[in-house]
Amino acid sequence: MYWLSLFIFSVPTVYSQIKELKVAKKSEEIWNKQFENYLNFHTLESLMDIKTVETSENERNWLQSLDRGIKNFRHKRQIHSGSGFLRKEIRMLTLEERRRFFNALNALKNDTTVTPNMYDFIALFHTRSDIVRRSHFGPSFLGWHRIYLLRLEFALKQKDARVSLPYWDSSIEGEMEDATISILWTPSFFGNAFNEVERGPFGHWTTPDGQRLRRNIGFLGSLIRRSDIEGMIVNARNHSDVVRSGFDSVTFSESTIEAEHDNVHAWVGGTMSGLLTAAFDPLFFLHHCFIDLIWEKLREGLRQKNVDPESDYPDTIGDQAAGSPMYLFDFLRNIDGYSDRWTRQFYQYDNQPSCSGGTQGCSSEYLRCAPTRSQPENVMCTSLTSNYVLDVSPRVRYKSAILDIETTVGPRFTSSTNKHVAGLFKLISPTSPLSRSEISKLAFSILKTPNIFNSIPEKTKQQLIIRMFSMGL
Ligand SMILES: [Cu+2]
User: Fold this and answer.
1) How far is the CA of 297 from the centre of ligand 1 (A)?
2) Cα(327) to centroid(ligand 1), Å
3) Is the peptide bond before 139 cis (omega within 30 degrees of 0)?
4) Range with the lowest mean pLDDT among 9-18, 405-414, 444-453?
5) Distance (Å) from CA 388 to ligand 1 centroid
């Protein structure tokens, strides 16, 4: 009887959702509008209150000490390629290097000589009012985040001069059958993958508004596929081919570096999936470091096509124009972010883990060569899975998804493709071990929550509703 009534009462809701969907599908503009309204009315006030924009003398001095190197980037002293520090994949660090990196992050988090602490002081720059408009959805995205990473890296070096920022090569997880059991989601690396982060180096961290870090991996979004990135680099004739040209130009089918990046934010879920909360999870910086590596490869590719990546800044007007001041780094122009000097003067990337030396390769005890998911005839470095018993049962994932949906405030990174949205459909599939009322609660809470609903591609929305229909929800 209960199911019957649920069915009867649900049908009109589903019909109205379908109608809504058709309208939304009609035009990307509506989606853009919704998102824009969302930005204006919902998020900024709630998040901006975390800290006022005012900085104290002490804070200004500290920032200046971090930015001194960045500010001197135009100095004409001779720079030798490879003179900077080396950024490695997190699994390629020695145990000692990894320990130092996590310690330096925690030293920043525990240092309250600036408010609320050094780590969050830097993370809070990613919550500022114009961060979405001026540092995302356009050509300033790549350069802005490159400088932002350097700022954190200099802060880490103040705590431990031997530390450099590692990157998380998420294309390794992208080739795994089930990336939720990767060694990364253990206390030795980033801590748990679902619900509140309670273990590992950030297990006790809270955001400035008192929230625990949260993750909900593999529920939405998708991971980077190495073949997609290689294809993008081969095909790009210039930056304009792989860089967004503005908020209005965003589509769900585009192939841009920023869209690839969005998908991974959405895939990690929780704190990382909110545009204005992401930087509170240190994984943000490792993810962006990998995006920066991809950009560096793209730049090499452009040079081979006789395009100078330094001057090839897409034609843009307004805040993201080449000559406009870089947001929050107004001693730079946006085009300065595209300078070769950052990688010639400050840092280089270590090679991505590779099996080119034969199947014994990868040079990490946490990686091994195995056939890839997309091309089984090839071997690629893939992550070890964990012996550490973390509960990744459907019930944990369900709890985690509900928590994620109910608590992530503000705009979320959109998942711009349907490539491999897996977690959501596993939980609501007819073979799901969840009860029907749980499945129903999950599906309806997605439909009812604008920042989630707007963050999934149209095709996923349709599939979701079709599945709900076929299950009689
Ligand atoms: Cu960002």
Assistant:
1) 20
2) 12
3) no
4) 9-18
5) 32
Q: What is the pTM of this model?
A: 0.88
CB 138 within 8 A of CB 244: yes
CATH architecture of 30-351+387-439: Orthogonal Bundle (1.10)
Q: Where are the domains of the chain?
A: 30-351+387-439
414 alpha carbon to ligand 1 midpoint, in Å? 13
**pLDDT digits 0-9 by tens, 19-63:** 444 443 443 444 445 445 444 434 444 444 444 456 788 898 999
